[in-house]
Design a protein that fits this description.
70% helix, mainly alpha, 1% strand, 21 helices, 3-stranded mixed sheet, globular, single chain, disordered N terminus, 3 strands
Amino acid sequence: MTILTASLPAAAAAAVPVRRLLVPLTTLQKLLIPAGAVLFDGLFWHRGAGLNLALYTLFVLGATLAGLPRHAAVWHSGYFRLLLAGTLLSAGGVVWYGSGAAQLACVASLVMLLGLVNQPHLRLLAFALLTALGGAARALPGLWPYLRLPRTGTGRWARTRFYLRLLVLPLLILGVFHVLFVLANPRYSALVGAVLERLGEWLAAIWPNFSLAHLLFFLLGLTLTAGALVVVPSHFFQDQESRFGEFVRRQRDRVASFRVRRPDFRARSQGALDLRKEYLAALAVFTLVNLLLLVVNVIDVRWIWFGFVPAPGFDLTQFVHEGTYVLIFSILVAMGIVLWFFRRNLNFYLPGLPVLRWGATVWVMQNAVLAVSVGLRNYYYILHTGLAYKRIGVYGFLLLTFFGLLTVLLKIWQRRSAFALVRLNGLAAYGLLVLLALGNWEIWMARYNLNSRFQTLDLGFLLEMPARVLPELAARQPVLDGMRRIIISPPGSYYETTATPAQARAAIRHRLRQWRQQYPRTAHWQSWTYAESAAFSSAVSQ
């Protein structure tokens, strides 16, 4: 993709202070942008995510790669190759499973890849994401002259544009609160739906073939395609990143002395004294918290590591939820304290550095033991109540926690900077996201939860899962006879509704029958996924 210059020389900019700068488009871009908008509309209008998301991703990816010159610096970036592989893998996960994790990974991978095309030397994935969004925000206003009609009155248009700019922020704030209220208040959402329906009927009466929603959707596709294919350099985050290094550097005392013959020894000694005070404070913190954490870890090891059996009446849910969140927060605070003390010259305080390093290392290792205790709490919850999205998310977070603790050790012993830790942990988080995109988690949860060893089953949770889970529920109906308590209320309901095994089987059959009737009418090739298609074939044969 051709990299466009975002500004003109100062003399040219001064010559045209009022006119909006026109973003120059190549012939290929002039063809691909409207083609992409038409493709977006045909793939996604009234369709769910599936094959369409993968096809649109491949379209943007192919158009971007085709426009890159052979000598472009991005071809030599390892991050670019990583994101390219992640985009293709997650797009395959969308076609295969169609899970929400796969869709998120696909979109995030593509946006971050576009950010690297904009600024090839970026090393923080978060900055690549923000750079892509910033570049698109700068490109879209420059495309307006291609869409608007020729102006006749310059003065009137300038005044109109002033008032439009004045209304942008209030309308943006109004839109944000409108979306929040729609999500939070079902009655307000129903009212908005009724108003839009009346508006659509009124417009249809004026122009039978006109659809405001469809027009807005097409403009959305045009905006997304233009923002992806037109690359206007956005250097802000690259400039911010260039200020950081991989390792902590020693900072000398910032004391200006104009007396060449008489150096300010007092200021230097004062700096050394301050560093010693900081060292003593860090040593006291690591000593005290190590002792405190040792007591907590001994209690956890003796209590939940070996032979833990919940007593009758023990609230396992409260035990897991409160303990897990508090312990995770304590681990994050511990990592933050280590980063604070080892941020500057304390890394070079040779008289006490070995003792301080070992004290911090012991604290990091004890936090790893604490993370194992969190994992065991989560394991006991899964063992006694079943799998859920949050339980899988806790283990994913713990994997990132262990990796983060390892990078903290690198900071302690190799004087790595906070920038290096953010970079490494960002890569780990992206790798975990791609890994989650390749899992068939709903099927695995259904198979695990429909087990005869459980006495309680949240069937409402399983029935609210994607339809590809229904054949698994139908095949494991005999397990329901051994359940003492079956919950059929949907997730998030204010009232809990239970059912007998016979009523649970009837609910499964009813849901499966509905899907058999609905799928042939609503299934389209745009939203096709292999897992859902295979599940429907299995459901028909049952």
